[in-house]
Amino acid sequence: MVVSAGSLLRTALVALFALIAVLPLLWMVNVSLMAPGTAATFPPPFWPAHPTLANYRELLLPHPGGLTSYHILPALGNSAVLASLTTVLSLLLCVPAGYAFAKLRFWGRARMLQALLALAVVPAQVAMLPLFLMLKSVGLVNTYAGVLAPWLAGVYGVLFIRQATLAVPDEMLDAARIDGASEARIFLSVVLPLLRPVVVTLALFAFLASWSDFLWPLIAITDQQHYTLPVALAAISREHGGDTELMMSGAVVTTLPVLLLFLALQRYYFTGILGGSIKG
Amino acid sequence: MTRQARAGLGFVLPVMIGTVLVLVIPTIGAALLSVTDFDIYALADIANLRFVGAGNYAELLRMPLFWRSVANTALFTAIGVPAAIATSLGVALLISSATVRWKPVWRVLLFAPYVTTLVATAVVWRYMFDRHNGLLNYALSLISIAPVDWLGDPRTSIPATLIFIVWKAFGYNMLVFIAALSTVPQELAEAARLDGAGAWARFRHVTLPAIGPALLLAAVLSVANFIQIFTEPYVMTHGGPAQSTVTVLYFMFDQGFTWWNLGMASAVAMIVFVVILLVTAVQARLGKRNEWW
Fold it and tell me: Domain ABC transmembrane type-1: where (chain A) (predicted)?
């Protein structure tokens, strides 16, 4: 195959853009491996001269008798637990509802669906101040339940699952009904297996969104022990902004898990953005 | 009630109840809160709460920092939306040309910034923008441009923040545009080429009409997103220097959770809500007029 000059040029240009896109991430990893104090020189070093895990040790290991504690390890635990709980909660709430809105006939279906569509335009921030007061009055500030609360609303998740479920042929459901299967059985044994790819996509979106969420955890959590990673990182950055290498290791710990998750499940991610079909 | 109706209601009720509880009631609550003087005294004892009517709104209009935040947000949106859409479209056009090789690899790399955690990459870019040892000023020094105090100078703080935002967000619309571009009729583009139409004419008359709806939708959604900028200034500049990056939501957060003026903050939230509604209405109007969706 003959490679034309134009093809080569375009490919090189795309490669250049891709390089610009990943350069800050590569730099983040590199600096996190530099010895403390060595990044802040001019010209700025790009590769670590003597790679070390010192920053990760400083950040993650407890300091017996020391004054500084960054609370990153508890934050990592909080983020992992909260993102997992958010994922489970979203699936339990949104998948059955999305299926019901697509395929089942029941009283009020059209009106409830319209209401959800209308609610899609409400910015999440509008509800946050009163929600904070509501949670405060029942003592749920600084608890996992408080951070999870906004996820009880499943507007986008329901609409996403509904859209994907519309493609499931009615004949399959009717055939199962004639065979005497209960509605719960139909959902679990007929519909869920077909929806597997979109369920994975929704789970991925929920996990990533919860992991990276910032404004709500910042409001709902006021005590360091309950910080999620983004809240903890922002707090450290306000206090220890000068320690470039340490901050970069904090950024790596915060964002690497979701980056790896995306790389592993990118197929589900991309189909999710492009409308979510149930092609496997 | 049939079995199906029972199951249907059972399946949707949990999420409907949840949505009412954490979205509908608090949204109504925000409207109510915005006409009270809910502050730290009311937080301590609800008996201190008074109805103030449009008082919060009137006071907002008299606050210079509120107007500053509106102007900053407008500037973010006015520069940011065209810059973000142009970047997404430019890269999408480039990667969509038939002769580019290894497309899946480039697509993943270009998309990577979008899935990163916003706070983490905002921290990273703070150091990229460092006046003395940042990579950006180093790159500029290679072409003999004097160092810029990106985040420390009120004249460059918004452009610098926008460079970060575009880097972080362009991947999403890039994907949307790549999908839209794949629907452009190739025979038409080929016919136009044979008729001697140049690259620009082909873009203008073949490509643009095909991706018009996607482009418009992306632009409107981007406007809504830019109006809600908060985390970037919170992490990168703390609203400074000289309040040059205080956005409307930053102002709301500050009023609400630094000063505990929750009534005032709710008034800001309602204003943001109404503006977002207007933007959505414009989108629906444009779409209807052009019979796109």
Answer: 76-265
A184 shares its domain with A50: no
Buried b (16+ CB within 10 A) or exposed e, A34-72: beeeebbeeebbeebeeebebbbebbeeeeeeeeeebbb
pTM comes to 0.93
Nearest to A119 among B4, B19, B231 (CB): B19
- What are the structural domains, with CATH classification, of chain B? 64-289 (1.10.3720.10)
B115–A215 CB contact, under 8 Å? no
Q: What is the pLDDT of residues B193-216, one digit of tens each?
A: 888 888 888 888 888 888 888 898
A222 contacts A142 by C-beta, under 8 angstroms: yes
Q: How far apart are CA B9 and CA B122, in angstroms?
A: 44
CB contacts, 8 Å: A12 with chain B: none
Tens digits of per-residue pLDDT, A46-92? 899 889 999 998 888 877 655 556 788 899 999 999 999 999 999 99
* Residue written as token pair 């009270």: B36
- C-alpha to C-alpha distance for A250 and A272, rounded to whole angstroms: 29
| The predicted structure's pLDDT at residue B209 | 85
Assembly ipTM? 0.91
